[in-house]
Amino acid sequence: MITFSKLRFVKKPVCLLLCALLSTVPVSWAEASLEDLPEIGTTAAATLTIEKELEYGDAYMRLLRASKPIINDPLLSEYVKDLGHRLVANAQDVRTPFEFFLIQNREVNAFAFFGGHVALHSGLFLHAQSESELASVMAHEIAHITQRHLARSMEDQAKKSPATMAALIGSLMLAIASPEAGIAAMQATTAASVQGQINYTRSNEMEADRIGIATLAKAGFDVQAMPGFFGRLADQYRYASTPPAMLLTHPLPESRIADTRSRAAQYPPRRVAVSENYLLAQARIIARYANLDSRNALDWFNRKGKEARGATLMAVNYGKAVVYMDSGKYDQARELLMPLLQAEPGNRFFIDSATDLDLFQKRYDSAINRLQHALKSNPENAVLRLNLAHALLEAGRAKDSLSLLSRFTYDNPADINGWGMLAEAYAGIGRRDGELAARAEVMALRGDWEKAIQNYIQASQIVDVGSLDQARYDARIDQLRLARARFADL
């Protein structure tokens, strides 16, 4: 279905500054002892409350939407959220809600920041060989949040001189958005302060590893995946002149990998079944979000499929079908996709792509009927609801999509896809005020408060004076102005 992943993004100076100040502490895979780590605890409330963390997290998330190519693909969003929340359900000291999302970037990287936000680069799917390996990275980042490592780092720096603290915090935060620049900035600070920060983040990393492995075990994943994945990355980029961002902010010395091996060995071996959903998510990323042209993407799938069996072969055929469909080769796509859908009629990966294929070939009734049938057994599923709304819009039935999208945006106020489709639906029935209001919500989600407010002002001027719609728009203007003021204060 249509998503907002391909939009152009502009990095504004204020965004770069706040990215430097609000991003997570860049974790440092430093040398560690094989002995058990002490409990460090989760203090830091004196420096930064949970409520303030949530405010910072929301602000930074809006800036990321405006500056980074976030993948707003409902299927992939559902997958990473489900996987993330499975881990969170087995984590300790959870104090905030969690949000997991993907950034379209082939480099291997992940980072966490205030308010329970965890970002994953799509490049992780190009290197992780199993769901357990991907989960090991996520579990590590979850531990950084539950243990409040960023807030604790700020508390530690507050004990130093303000000038030194500002220099270190700024440079360390910048290292997430731009590792080379952040490391250069760190080197410009005093050697003693830098060493103190390295020692502090080393303890954070050791704690995140220990807690992350425990979370993996409780959630039913293979704990050997963590040392396996990190060890393979270290070997692959050992002599690289320009290592990926993750290795700049997460160095992997042998002692570091040995420590995770030792910790993983304390858990009994576990045989984990191959995750079909992971393989399908990986195939979708290769087909659409790896910056590969159709020929190279097909070559990747053909090489993968030479010895593929079972779920792996299914994922290969699914990926090839998506490539063919996006290339306009609809008959070839249908030939691969339909057997998959017949084998698993409830699989949302297959339903989504079959919907796209039907819409490309103007088989609107087929797409709508399939989605309505699927929703009977899963009426609240976001992927199916958005697909149905999209199919109705493509079929010229904007009016029919309105109630569906109004309910969806109410349930999912931070979903850009829903607001974009709602704007399209209002445009389709000639409701300019509704279109302006929906587009305003997209702007607000990207932190563009001025344009969002102006859109609502225009919407208020269009409708009848004293009407319920005008009252609603005016109330929203007041809310956005208050949000703008709080955003500026941060």
Automatic annotation (TrEMBL):
Keywords: Hydrolase, Metal-binding, Metalloprotease, Periplasm, Protease, Signal, Zinc. It is found in: Periplasm. Gene3D superfamilies: Metalloproteases ('zincins'), catalytic domain (3.30.2010.10), Tetratricopeptide repeat domain (1.25.40.10). It comes from the Bacteria. InterPro entries: Mito/Outer_Membr_Metalloprot (IPR051156), Peptidase_M48 (IPR001915), Protease_BepA (IPR030873), TPR-like_helical_dom_sf (IPR011990). Its EC number is 3.4.-.-. Residues 76-263 form the Peptidase M48 domain. The keyword Hydrolase applies. The active site is at E141, D209. It is an enzyme of class 3 (hydrolase). Its cofactor is Zn(2+). Binds 1 zinc ion per subunit. Zn(2+) binds at H140, H144, E205. It holds the Pfam family Peptidase_M48. CDD domains: M48C_bepA_like (cd07333). Residues 1-30 form the signal peptide. The keyword Signal applies. Functions as both a chaperone and a metalloprotease. Maintains the integrity of the outer membrane by promoting either the assembly or the elimination of outer membrane proteins, depending on their folding state. Belongs to the peptidase M48 family. BepA subfamily. This is Putative beta-barrel assembly-enhancing protease.
